[in-house]
Design brief:
The protein has 270 residues and is α/β, with parallel strands linked by helices. It has a single domain, classed as Uracil-DNA glycosylase-like domain (Uracil-DNA Glycosylase, subunit E, 3-Layer(aba) Sandwich), CATH 3.40.470. 47% of the residues lie in helices and 11% in strands. The chain is built from eleven helices and six strands. The protein has a six-stranded mixed beta sheet with strand order 1-3-2-4-6-5, with helices on both faces. Helix 3 packs antiparallel against helix 4 and helix 3 runs parallel beside helix 7. It binds uracil. The site of uracil has 15 residues, from helix 6.
Length: 270
Amino acid sequence: MTPQPLDTAATEALLAFWRDAGVDACYLEEPVDRTVFVAPPVAQSVQRATASITALHGGMVGADAVGEARRLAAAASTLDELAEAIAAFEGCPLRAMGAKQAVFARGNPKGSVLLIGEAPGETEDLRGQPFVGQAGQLLDRMLAAAGLTDQAFITNTVFWKTPGGRPPTPQEQAACAPFLERALVLMKPKALLLLGAASAKAVLQTNDGIMKTRGQWREWRLDDGATSVPAMATLHPAFLLRQPQAKRVAWADMLSLAARLDTAEVEQRA
Ligand code: URA
């Protein structure tokens, strides 16, 4: 193909056409395996140092990203500072895969329940808040019906949208995990609600499918030995939009959460 001189207006019109047609990611001629962790670009001197450390310990380059995430997360002493630390973090590969901005959390940071979804979608990427698209609206209706709107603080296992809305990989989740753990420590919720398989697998460290794990109370215990919280997985609201008949079991999970929070409140008052 002979390259033509760039016509900005025509290019913008073509991009707008693709966007309206639902195209949300660009692909190269050759396939790229996005499930493989790719380290963010770093200076050559850092690359040399990393290469020798990696050679010494036989570790993954992704471990550097996790270390940096831990350092930034530990320095945050409020959830607002944590949001800033996430926005400054360059170690999650998703950042370079078309996301417009970091998406951290919304809701009541002093609430009693932390909800953890999978990854922000297109609408969340545009608005900078989690669960504000159709799935989020369904989630909000369920929380309202269970009387939990004011108690909920909502985030995701990763803080950047994934290409084409695919589930986040374990490597992407690992790079973001120190921020999620810090959010738990700073917020101190009474319970966690894990929305969907990718969230349940990452937090509960299980390979069991969501149909097996949902509705059961487990414990999320951090390595600090001091932090643990009851956690329950449920079906993702986007799944409920596709399979409305599954709303019945998701509603049962929501009621189980409300009952658990009631019990925790009664115990605290006693
Ligand atoms: N799905 C998720 O898992 N998280 C969001 O924020 C939006 C949709």
